[in-house]
Amino acid sequence: MSETWRYRGQAIDSGQLAFVREFIAAHPESSRWKLSRQLCEALGWKQANGALRDIVCRGLLLQLARAGQITLPAVRCQIAGQRRNARLRPQPVLIDTTPLAMALSALGPVEIQLVRRTADEPLFQSLMEHYHYLGYEQPVGEHLKYLVWAAAGPVACLAWSSPPRHLGARDRYIGWSAEARRRNLHLLAYNTRFLILPWVQVPHLASHILGRMAGRISADWQAVYAHPIYLLETFVDPERFRGTCYRAANWKMVGETTGRGKDDLTHRQNRSIKQVWVQPLHRRFRELLSA
Description:
With 291 residues, this protein is of the alpha+beta class. It has 2 domains: 5-66, no CATH class; 90-290, Aminopeptidase (3-Layer(aba) Sandwich), CATH 3.40.630.30. The protein is built from 10 helices and 11 strands. The chain has helices at residues 14-26, 32-43, 54-66, 104-107, 121-131, 168-174, 178-184, 205-225, 244-248, 285-290; strands at residues 5-7, 10-12, 100-101, 111-114, 143-150, 153-161, 188-196, 200-201, 231-236, 252-256, 275-280. Helix 2 crosses helix 3. The two termini are 28 Å apart. The model has no long low-confidence stretch (mean pLDDT 88).
């Protein structure tokens, strides 16, 4: 049986691996960056919006090289902050932190702004880095970033990204097969960060924002990545939070994680167990995700 290699949902079989070896040998002048883009074109590895999956391709090439399956050209330059543990951290941004305590009805208009690849993205990253207990991490793959504005200033931040590939509680809730999961996982969005800024004390603001997000995120994803979203998911750490705002916004707790993480090889718990919360965005979400 032929061996198949996988990286972030992208698979490559023995026939394609032989093609990759021949392709690298035929392009001795190409850098690693250029090779990944050329291979994406040759193999048709593209996102739904037509963008090349070159970051995923680069990761897969590194995986194959470390396993001794291919030989990559030497690294030609080191990009500052390219490695996760060497990335430059977002710098603090001076903003008004005057306490904002009032009823939601007195807050005035609440604007949710999509800030990815805009002039306000550094502000989003700085607020996450300095006020969220997990800090800021640059997402890999499909993702959207939002700032929430009210009373002439930012009041909240939300980050959404591609979901974990294997999540037992969620998969059982959907009821899809392994093949359907591999094919349709991109139709889910994972709420990786949700931050109400610490000086903002407005009851029900968090659930209000989540309700507004549910009404627009599928259209935003369609505009950026050319496909809709049918289900939202997130983790809640019960040692820190109770999930009150998610429950108030009609999310449902469907189970818990195993506490092993996505790269586990030991099958033993190595981190805290989180609650798994989901919100369907379409009444036929199970049918659509299992198709």
